[in-house]
């Protein structure tokens, strides 16, 4: 999915970094709202620094937004849906 979506390899690395950190945050019982805050900050920093080509920046923002809101992004490898992030309590 990401290899076809981006033209610049840095964009793929940034997407993977965001995914990795979000998974760590989920494992630490952070909420989807907290993930959204983190990703918004990350994407804002990329935008401000003009790190990525504008087209890739836009694609990254859309893809991350969709990915964060999709609960299936956070199903563990065992496939147990009881571990979905929205069911965890602090």
Secondary structure: elements and pairs:
Elements: H1 2-5, H2 9-27, H3 32-49, H4 54-69
Helix pairs in contact: 2-3, 2-4, 3-4
If you had to describe this structure to a student in words, what would you say it looks like?
The protein has about 90 residues and is an all-alpha fold. The chain has one domain (about 1-85). It is about 65% helix and about 0% strand. The longest helix is centred in the N-terminal third of the chain and has 19 residues, at about 10-25.
* Domain module tally: 1
Structure classification? mainly alpha
* Overall pLDDT confidence: 83
The major sheet is characterized as: none
Spatial separation of the terminal alpha carbons:
32 Å
Number of helices: 4
Q: What is the overall silhouette?
A: globular
Approximately what portion of the residues adopt beta-strand conformation?
under 5%
> What is the tally of beta strands?
0
Return Rg in Å. 14 Å
Helix and strand run: HHHH
Low-confidence stretches: none
Proportion of residues in helical segments:
55-70%
Notable traits:
mainly alpha
How would you concisely characterize the structure shown here?
The chain has 4 helices and no strands. The protein is an all-alpha fold and 90 residues long.
């Amino acid at each position: 999915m990401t290899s076809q979506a981006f033209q610049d390899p840095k964009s793929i690395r940034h997407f993977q970094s965001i995914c990795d950190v979000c998974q760590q945050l989920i494992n630490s019982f952070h909420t989807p709202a907290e993930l959204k805050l983190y990703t918004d900050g990350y994407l804002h920093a990329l935008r401000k620094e003009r790190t990525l080509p504008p087209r890739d920046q836009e694609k990254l923002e859309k893809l991350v937004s969709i990915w964060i809101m999709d609960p299936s992004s956070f199903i563990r490898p065992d496939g147990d849906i009881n571990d979905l992030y929205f069911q965890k309590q602090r």
